[in-house]
Specification:
By secondary structure, this protein is α+β, with helices and mostly antiparallel strands. Helix content is 52%, strand content 16%. Bound molecules: manganese (II) ion.
């Protein structure tokens, strides 16, 4: 490839000037100096790199810096970090170099960015979620890290055409899954919309193109509608000497796509494809008053829909969004949304965090990014295990509508719609939540599960004797409350289970059952528990009592007896050979790392057979279901419920060693012990571990501990022993 170096250098210089010119924040001389240093370093560092498209690499960090400077509107420090974001990872320059040249803050942000990009990328969705969690954990370093990362992603999405298709789809899905919700939460609505539209372009190209085309087709009609409408509004507002601007705003391709999906309607049936925005000049003292004045003028002429009035001025969204939204019956009987915003509100809506920073003076309410990040941080640190759960919860909370409630002191708090009284307690503080005994809403005592409404005033009553209980999980809706409750229940459950295990060992002794893998499996099966921790826990808290254990013991001894009776009858020489043949290579399924033989059944969707590659899926009601790895349902199970998937493997049980204890009873006679031991040691595949004979009067009891390679060998042994004169009963313990 021939590169015109001179032309390229000119272009780089031009981009640099543009970067300074478009900055949303006003740059001081020292800001400009700093940016120049970062710029020169980036140019040098990337001088011999090119992107897949053939373009010099430096255009990428410059573009990211431009997004950061203009679209998001961050400060000079962020612009520098954006310019240098790929330097440490990809070039010979180090963090120390950056720190020396640009100071510790820029170096820290670049460090954060390098950390994120070194997180292991994986197609496994649960790993992806785990990475996402780790990424959020870096938030407390400096929120600018995440914002620059979003800008980086936006530029990568804008320039993906040169990439192979499978990579495009992967990056686009990840963007939709993680970056768009994050951008939304930080209040970067424009960036979020662009990320979503670009993602759709790569994940569902045909869908994207067809919606885009239809928007183009209807554009003219839409524009003329907006024009005539705003002409009328302009007249009316001008009479009142308003300084304002009216803009038409069409819905994004992605949100039209979502709406078509959720409402299951064609493009033509989506009515609110655009909205009108009235952006007016005001100062902080009269901006709210003016918003309602505009409302009053508009509704003098057009009928408002009272159920669609949204006052985000009196109670801003937790993202900081402020505006007055109304929906009116416009010309030619079309419902149309009108968004009324002051210039300040508009800036916040467009720039999110950066504008907040700029306006955050005086008595600005503290529903800002910092407090959001603090809460998020706490949830992350409390989260016990499952990253997919966490991300799903997190995303639900992101898009959930909000309600606004008050503390006893009258502080305004915003919670997701559907939040309960207990969610509120956890929202205030994790320790308060954990000790909640009761809640008063508007001075009345209510159940903890009471769903809150906007305007409620809530007082939490705590007690040191209260501990989170699992039924709380039935009604809390916020991820914060869920994760704190889950982790404290888990801690307690573990303690109970440990205690329970010892109690169980003690209680089984008089019932002549040894606590071991085998008896545990039988108990799990008998009592229908999913795992041993559940079993021990029930014993620990006393809900599984002695009576039930006794019933189990009877069943346990009976089945063994029947098993042996059957086996003894069966193991005649000719059937013996047959049975040996049946012992095929894969005759046994084991699960998990411990290779435990758990109770299971085979999924009816794919019906795996011995030897197939399989995995286990823990169902809610039916225990472990075994699926074929190639099962059509496998992918969705593994990606959405990774934590319920358990590995499974076929084994050849003949290669295993079993420990068995045989209990012999009969009439004592001379030489019996010798005869028994001789019989056992004649069989080379049986090892005696321990032997113990007791006799009382003429009745004897013998306990023999043996190791055998498989059940057939054990059966043979039992068969032989049963022929010994004097032995009348053989039972496996
Ligand atoms: Mn990059």
């Amino acid at each position: 490839m021939i590169v015109d170096q001179e032309k390229e250098n000119k272009e780089i210089a031009k981009q640099y000037k543009e970067l300074l010119r478009i900055s949303y924040q006003t740059l001081s001389d020292s800001d400009k100096k700093m940016i120049r240093l970062a710029f020169d370093m980036a140019v040098e560092a990337h001088s011999d790199q090119r992107r897949k498209s053939g373009e010099a690499y430096i255009f990428h960090p410059i573009s990211v810096a431009k997004i950061v400077a203009q679209q998001i509107g961050l400060d000079a420090t962020s612009i520098c970090a954006a310019l240098l974001h790929d330097v440490v990872e990809d070039t010979r320059f180090s963090l120390e170099d950056i720190e020396r040249l640009l100071g510790v803050t820029v170096a820290k942000i670049v460090h954060g960015l390098t950390k994120i990009s070194s997180l292991k990328k994986d197609k496994n969705i649960s790993l992806q979620a785990e990475n996402f969690r780790k990424m959020l954990l870096t938030l407390n370093d400096d929120v600018r890290v995440i914002i620059i990362k979003i800008a980086d992603r936006l530029h990568n999405m804008q320039t993906m055409d040169a990439m192979p298709e499978y990579k495009q789809v992967k990056i686009a899905s990840e963007t939709l899954y993680i970056y768009a919700p994050l951008a939304h939460r930080i209040g970067l609505y424009n960036v979020k919309t662009e990320l979503e539209d670009l993602s759709l372009k790569y994940t569902e190209p045909q869908r994207y193109e067809s919606i885009k085309e239809k928007i183009e087709e209807t554009k003219e009609a839409q524009e003329s509608y907006i024009k005539s409408f705003s002409k009328f509004l302009t007249q009316e507002l001008s009479k009142e000497r308003f300084k304002f601007e009216i803009k038409g705003r069409s819905k994004s391709i992605y949100s039209i796509h979502r709406k078509m999906l959720t409402q299951n309607v064609p493009f033509e049936k989506i009515y609110d494809k655009f909205a009108l925005r009235i952006i007016y000049k005001a100062n902080r003292n009269n901006e709210k008053f003016l918003a309602w004045k505009i409302y009053s003028i508009v509704t003098d002429h057009f009928t408002p829909n009272p159920t669609r009035l949204r006052d985000w001025i009196s109670a801003p969204k937790s993202t900081g969004y402020e505006a007055l939204h109304i929906t009116i019956m416009g010309p030619s009987n079309k419902w149309i949304e009108i968004q009324i915003r002051s210039e300040r509100m508009h800036e916040i809506a467009e720039k999110g965090y950066a504008a907040h920073y700029k306006y955050k003076q005086g008595n600005q309410k503290d529903i800002g990014i910092e407090s959001w990040l603090n809460r998020l941080q706490e949830v992350l640190e409390n989260n016990t295990g499952n990253a997919v759960d966490f991300v799903e919860d997190f995303k639900l909370n992101l898009y959930a509508k909000e309600i606004f409630v008050f503390t006893p002191k009258g502080d305004l708090k915003s919670l997701p719609q559907g939040s309960t009284a207990l969610d509120f307690a956890f929202f205030i503080h994790s320790e308060i939540g954990k000790k909640t005994r009761g809640v008063r809403v508007n001075d009345k005592l209510v159940p903890l599960s009471k769903v809150l409404k906007s305007g409620d005033q809530i007082e939490v009553i705590t007690s040191d004797n209260i501990k989170p209980s699992s039924n709380w999980l039935d009604f809390v809706v916020t991820s914060r409350a869920r994760s704190i409750i889950k982790s404290s229940i888990n801690d307690e459950k573990k303690a109970h289970a440990e205690e329970g295990k010892e109690i169980l060992r003690r209680k089984l002794k008089p019932l002549k059952i040894t606590l071991n893998d085998k008896s545990i499996q039988q108990m799990l099966h008998y009592f229908k528990f999913e795992n041993s921790q559940d079993l021990f826990y029930r014993i620990g808290i006393g809900t599984l009592d002695n009576k039930k254990l006794k019933e189990f013991a009877n069943e346990y001894h009976n089945t063994l007896l029947n098993f042996f009776k059957r086996r003894v009858r069966k193991s005649k020489p000719q059937t013996q050979n047959e049975e040996d043949k049946i012992t095929e290579k894969f005759d046994k399924l084991v699960f998990g790392k411990e290779k435990e033989p758990l109770a299971h059944s085979f999924a009816s969707c794919c019906r795996p057979i011995p030897g197939d590659a399989v995995f286990g899926f823990i169902t809610v009601n039916e225990g472990i279901k075994v699926h074929h790895n190639e099962c059509p349902n496998a992918l969705s199970l593994q990606s959405n419920f990774a934590y319920r998937v358990i590995s499974a493997k076929w084994m050849d049980s003949s290669t295993e060693e079993y420990n068995a204890v045989l209990k012999l009873t009969g009439i004592d006679k001379k030489g019996l012990v010798n005869e028994v031991t001789r019989l056992i040691s004649n069989n080379t595949s049986v090892n005696i571990n321990k032997i113990n004979f007791d006799s009382e009067d003429s009745f004897f009891t013998g306990l023999i501990h043996v190791s055998v390679p498989n059940k057939n060998v054990l059966n043979k042994l039992v068969n032989n022993l049963s022929r010994v004169n004097g032995i009348d009963k053989i039972v496996r313990e």
